[in-house]
Amino acid sequence: MERTKTEVEDGSISLGFLLYRQGEFEKAKQFFECLLAENALYDFHKASLYEFAPLLKQYDVTMNRIRCYRGLGSVSSMLSQYDETLMNFQRELAILTKLNQHEAEVETASAYVAIGQIHFFKKELDLALSYEEKALAILLPLNHPVLAYVYTAKGDFDSGIQFYQKALELYGQHLPANHENIGVTYANMGIVYKENKKFKEALQCYEKTRETYLECLPSNHPRILILEQDISRARALMNIFVC
């Protein structure tokens, strides 16, 4: 699962995330659990160089425990062990909400997003929406696509489209016009329009997706091949319903 902050840190924790990224999920899980159990989360030599070593020790241990729970949650999510994932992400969140540091706001919002995604995977859409809205209040730009997914799954197509449009506005401010994420967002909008039987609008979105994909992807890319199929279906459905 993607998170908003780089997960690989200096020191022992980085090995756990390296195992995770290599697909060694069970080994990564064991590694994070050992770190938590042994409390091997602090470099005492580094702390001794500072006047406020006890304070630094407490903060570093806290942040590293947060990263261990994040790692355990990410691993169990990849194994589709969603109850265990929620337990670890909730533990991460419980620690984060007790911190006053400004930096923790980003991590807290990221935890809300992750918990919302797991509830979405479990088809607990109301819970998913509540967590994504909490994250929205902290990190507005990061949450529009996830909220769009949830609203669409709940059958609220208008809200889904609205959040995709907001995502496009933000992408337009920060990404090049031919960025793949823009094409993906248009493709997702096309799916929403198709589900809502607005085939003309769906086709327009798919064609915008094609324009973007052809500029940033090779012509034989699987996404382009799937897109061409979606365009053909949208045209066929539009002809049927118009006639």
Automatic annotation (TrEMBL):
Intervals holding TPR repeats: 141-174
The keyword Repeat is assigned to this record: yes
Highest taxon of source: Eukaryota
Keywords: Repeat, TPR repeat
Protein name: Tetratricopeptide repeat protein
Organism: Didymodactylos carnosus
